[in-house]
Design goal:
219 residues, 4-stranded antiparallel sheet, globular, 10 strands, 21% helix, 4-stranded mixed sheet, alpha+beta
């Protein structure tokens, strides 16, 4: 309870130094908050989906690189040899490959050829998936030599998973199909089929493809 005279003393001019001056409150007008995700959606809509497609492709590229490196490290560890870069030899169109009977590990569309000097050469099957502009996904070959002289052909094969992204307008297609390359084979430096071994590792590969609505027919 306030004693007599206390209220008068609090309101008197002599008490101004002992009390804080009154604070004037200004009403705050809140501005509309726009979330980061809303900005991204607006940008994607303004760009007709191009920003979204680019982001999806970049994310897929990063994942593919990580999976590739992990599988390659495991493959080279398993092959356990010294890698080398083979010399390439041109394979004539009429040259016949060695019969695949008894060659363990040779894949379909790969060919093993005996060169005129007796050395064996492997024609690899590098392309996994072809598109209108050429090869879209490739198999990777590494050649290694073991201390006892055995040649290891190490394949790194992507297992393709398609991811479709719908866009308002598809990118322009290639003006012309890619020209076929010369048939070439890697010289392995051995003359006996028994001196060749095959190793293979697979890894998941995400291929982003764009889809779009067909263009309206001309009137």
């Amino acid at each position: 309870m306030t004693r007599p005279g206390e209220l008068d003393e609090a309101l008197s001019p002599s008490s101004a130094g002992r009390h804080r001056p009154p604070v004037r409150l200004t009403p705050r007008v809140s501005s509309p908050q726009v979330s980061r995700s809303t900005i991204v959606v607006l940008l994607v809509a303004a760009c007709g989906g191009a920003a979204s497609l680019s982001a999806v492709r970049q994310a897929a590229t990063n994942r593919n690189a990580t999976e590739h490196d992990r599988a390659r490290d495991a493959l080279l560890l398993e092959a356990n040899g010294a890698s080398f870069q083979p010399v390439l030899a041109v394979v004539e169109m009429n040259q016949q490959a060695i019969s695949t009977g008894g060659i363990v590990g040779l894949r379909p569309q790969e060919g093993l050829y005996a060169l005129p000097d007796g050395e064996l050469a492997l024609m690899p099957n590098t392309c996994i998936r072809r598109g209108p502009c050429g090869c879209e996904v490739s198999r990777e070959y590494t050649y290694l030599k073991k201390p006892e002289g055995t040649i290891v052909v190490a394949r790194l094969t992507p297992v393709v998973h398609l991811r479709e992204v719908h866009v308002a307008r598809c990118s322009a297609t290639c003006a012309a199909a890619a020209m076929p390359a010369l048939r070439s084979a890697a010289r392995l430096g051995v003359r006996q089929v028994s001196a060749i071994a095959f190793e293979e590792r697979t890894y998941p590969y995400e291929l982003v493809v764009e889809t779009c609505d067909p263009a309206p027919a001309a009137r």
